[in-house]
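Open question from group meeting: does this chain pack into something compact, or does most of it stay loose? Before anyone orders reagents, we agreed to write out a predicted structure and look at it together. Recording both the input and the output here so the notebook holds the full record.
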Amino acid sequence: MYKAKIDSQTYLAILEPRHADELYTLIDNSRERIGQWLAFPSQTNQVQDTHSFIQSSLKRLAENNGYWAGVWYKDEIAGSIGFLYIDWEARKTEIGYWLGDAFTGKGLAAKSVTQLIEHAFNDLDLRKVEINAASKNFKSRSIPERLGFTQEGVIRSYEYLNNEFHDRVIYGLLKEEWKNRKSHEVCELTHDQT
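Structure tokens returned:
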């Protein structure tokens, strides 16, 4: 997946070095909100930091071990989403995502996560997708909950961020659960139209 169209206004594309400036600006403009739950904004202090991040993501892509893509909305970078790793033996991955302040509340996170789930199960033939979120980050947690993930557990005091320990909630979705959910939605849609 180098570019995946989600709808007429939204697409995902692999982050490239040419995106470093706009990615940095997006992070800088959203630093306080994103930094509540994620460590990377405090480690992103100049454009070179986003450039290094993109280079490491491209290296991971070349090694077939995940990648990060940009989320574009109306031709502006709105956030980022990616596979944090790919465990080919266990055939599973973990999806991470974030959006800039100006792009929340538009359904972009759910649409982007759905796109990566489809890619993981249909193109990569993985068996499981996980999403982890800070226990108090209810907006982020709502994405896997809406998409039918199962809460599999909580890792207590997983991360120390902003002078506070945060628990991490682990969500998992199996390929067959996703297929059953999608076929159920199709059945409901067909039933509603008759």
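Observations to bring back to the group:
The chain has one domain: 3-193.
Residues 3-193 form a domain with the Aminopeptidase fold (CATH 3.40.630.30).
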